[in-house]
Design goal:
This protein is of the alpha/beta class and 483 residues long. 33% of the residues lie in helices and 12% in strands. It has 16 helices and 14 strands. It has a 10-stranded mixed β-sheet. Strands 7-8 form a two-stranded antiparallel ribbon. Helix 1 runs parallel beside helix 2 and helix 8 (264-281) runs parallel beside helix 14. It binds iron/sulfur cluster (2 copies). One iron/sulfur cluster (SF4) is lined by residues 367-368, 371, 373-374, 377, 379-380, 397, 400, 403-404.
Length: 483
């Protein structure tokens, strides 16, 4: 999770996976974005799709809690490693609030102890929100933490997979946490996974975040859970420990996906559904991470590792000081070393890690290499490259149909925004251009989103009713489905 400064739309505190790579020219990077997992993968809830829960199996005999010695080592090395002035201290899980507040108070003290003159610290904190209280929020506010809150949509959608250990939905508790963040004026963004439960409800989910949660910064993460023919049955049951159930250690293997996984093309449709709403009403007001970084990509700045040509600048730190290539590759083959033995700067710039990052480019399929949106997509994240390409080549991104749809569909509006920028005008002026096109085309013509519905009943409908509960009422409004 990271702040995204110098954003093309405006100053935008968007979180996660921001890639400092556009600044990097040498193997020894001047900065990187380390995700620290102080309580390892331990969590206080039990989201069905969360394969990170299974990573507890990597440290079977340890209580996954970062010691003060590891905390100090981590902060000291992180600050020493940065040759750029901005340093992000990013806390992630599992669930970092399990570490208790004193741990983070100490982390801030340690930062102050080692911070060099001119070093600017950005604190980020990803949480499910359940343990938040006034004390936490006062701390976040006082120290300018940017908090990422995980919400998957309105109650019925959120509670499909985001459940506690008794399989009960967590929506109410998360909303309580959000309310506290708002009351204390803590900066927050919404992190929403895209999965089988919400993939058909892009616009509804987006409107819920914008209108009911008052979110200004939103990030969507596709759920892609891989499995093999041997593991798919167990994988479909979820990744946590359950009575009488065998538990798997999730690894990035297999070319099957669980039933919770977002549909490949549907991922693109979900994004397009939201984009068509955003580009008419919210440019410059609501910041959707993928939309921002896509526009940046047109001018050659790759802010997000997933769609950058190479990666490898986002290592993950476990509670005991083990450093892995990436949070998505916390598995034995990608263990770079331990910061108590080797300085993290040496681990991040090691030949193994540089190769990890370059493999993203070197392993592109022929289909990707000749793809029209390659400069924007760059083949996506290697963790998702387990499908066959159109030519039958192994290693195509599972999400390719959706990625291709999204990048192709949004191109004309993105190019309009770039033109506006060249004229020193705000990208938000694109909304007037789109409205003019809508009027010219007429409300009974097919909606440009590609749904097949008439515009009047699709993105031309400014106040569609949601079939899901409204916040605070708990009532379900029974109306037409939005798709
Ligand atoms: S493996 Fe994927 S998530 Fe990890 S750094 Fe590379 S692109 Fe980013
Ligand atoms: S859209 Fe598909 S083919 Fe094109 S670069 Fe992305 S993954 Fe490759």
């Amino acid at each position: 999770m990271d702040k995204m400064s110098d954003n093309i739309f405006t100053e935008n505190p968007m979180t996660q996976s921001v890639n400092p790579q556009f600044q990097i020219t040498a193997d020894n990077p001047p900065g990187f974005h380390l995700l620290s997992k102080p309580s390892g993968s331990t969590c206080n809830i039990d989201c069905t799709y969360c394969f990170f829960l299974s990573k507890e199996a990597l440290y079977p005999n340890e209580k996954s809690r970062m010691s003060e010695a590891t905390l100090e080592e981590y902060i000291r090395q992180l600050l020493e490693s940065h040759r750029i002035s901005e340093v992000t201290v990013a806390w992630q899980g599992g669930e970092p609030t399990l570490m208790k507040l004193d741990f983070f108070r100490l982390s801030v003290e340690i930062v102050e102890k080692y911070r060099r003159p001119g070093q600017v610290i950005n604190y980020t904190f990803q949480t499910n929100g359940i343990l938040l209280n006034d004390e936490w929020c006062e701390f976040f506010k006082k120290n300018n933490f940017l908090v990422g809150l995980s919400v998957d949509g309105p109650r019925e959608i959120h509670d499909t997979y985001r459940v506690d250990r008794g399989s009960q939905g967590t929506f109410d508790k998360v909303m309580k946490g959000l309310n506290l963040l708002q009351r204390h004026k803590v900066e927050y963004n919404i992190l929403c996974t895209v999965n089988a439960a919400n993939e058909n409800h892009g616009r509804t989910v987006y409107r819920f975040f914008r209108d009911e949660l008052k979110a200004k910064w939103i990030q969507f993460i596709p759920i892609v859970e891989r499995a093999t023919s041997e593991t798919i049955e167990i994988a479909n049951q979820g990744w946590s420990i359950q009575k009488d159930r065998k538990r798997l250690l999730y690894t990035q293997t297999g070319n099957l996906v669980t039933e919770r996984t977002v549909g490949a093309l549907q991922y693109g449709r979900f994004l397009v559904d939201i984009f068509e709403e955003w580009v008419r009403h919210d440019v410059g007001k609501v910041f959707v991470q993928l939309f921002d970084v896509t526009l940046e990509s047109y001018i050659g700045r790759h802010m997000l590792c997933i769609h950058a040509p190479t990666c490898g600048y986002g290592p993950a730190l476990e509670h005991n000081g083990d450093l892995y290539s990436c949070d998505h590759f916390v598995e034995p083959d990608y263990l770079l070393g331990n910061i108590h033995k080797t300085h993290m700067q040496d681990l991040v710039s090691s030949p193994e890690q540089r190769k990890f990052g370059r493999d993203k480019l070197d392993s592109l399929t022929a289909q990707c290499q000749k793809c029209e949106v390659r400069q924007l997509c760059n083949g996506g994240c290697p963790k998702d490259r387990f499908a066959l390409s159109k030519d039958g080549e192994q290693g195509q991104n599972y999400l390719c149909p959706g990625l291709e749809l999204f990048f192709t569909h949004t191109r004309s509006a993105m190019l309009e925004m770039l033109k506006l920028l060249e004229l020193h005008r705000a990208p938000a002026d694109v909304m007037a251009l789109i409205t003019a096109e809508d009027i010219k085309r007429g409300i009974y013509q097919p909606c440009p989103c590609g749904s097949g519905k008439k515009f009047r009943f699709c993105h031309g409908n400014k106040n569609p009713e949601s079939q899901f509960s409204k916040l605070n009422t708990g009532s379900v409004i029974e109306t037409n489905k939005d798709k």
